[in-house]
Specification:
- The strands form two sheets. Strands 1-8-3-6 form a four-stranded antiparallel beta sheet. It has a four-stranded antiparallel beta sheet with strand order 2-7-4-5, with no helix packed on it.
- Helix 3 packs across helix 4.
- With about 150 residues, it is of the alpha+beta class.
- Helix content is about 35%, strand content about 30%.
- The radius of gyration is 16 Å and the shape is globular.
Length: about 150
């Protein structure tokens, strides 16, 4: 099965309206802090334009950027899994237009509609898997034998 382009593509067509009804369009200025590592994960976003960096605290130093996200990408998955705390921080690089979702409302929708819930969990799981794979490739590029980063076992 092909990977969905974005969240709305991942949800069955007859369930999209329910998700869109709780969505909110937002415009975020440059350098807006969306969330901080360790704080409560109470919402998430789908980027429509612009970029957001994910970062991780490094004791005694500035936060390290671990990934840059762009159009149609999901910002945040910690809202879906207890204890609902962010694993990273996030900040806009420039102006960003996004679709924002209240996490509690989406979790409730997933519980009340198993078809929509399965699609949502699958979309988030595929997103996490893609990012984990990208992280592994970057680590191989940095620390593995020369030229090993592009290999797929």
């Amino acid at each position: 099965m092909a990977r969905a382009k974005d969240l709305f593509d991942a949800v069955p067509p007859d369930r999209r309206r329910r998700l869109k009804d709780i969505a909110r369009q937002v415009s975020l200025p440059r350098a807006t802090r969306l969330f901080e590592e360790g704080r409560r994960a109470d919402r998430f976003w789908i980027i429509r334009s612009g970029q957001v960096v994910l970062d991780q605290r490094v004791p005694g130093r500035q936060a390290a950027v671990v990934e840059t996200l762009g159009r149609d990408e999901l910002i945040g998955w910690s809202w879906l899994f207890p204890p609902y705390l962010w694993h990273l921080g996030a900040q806009t690089v420039g102006p960003v237009d996004a679709v924002e979702f209240d996490a509690a409302a989406v979790r409730e929708l997933c519980e009340s509609d198993p078809v929509l819930g399965r699609a949502m969990y699958r979309y988030v799981a595929e997103t996490v898997a893609d990012r984990l794979h990208g992280t592994r490739v970057r680590l191989l590029d940095l620390y593995g034998p020369q030229g090993s980063g592009g290999l797929d076992p």
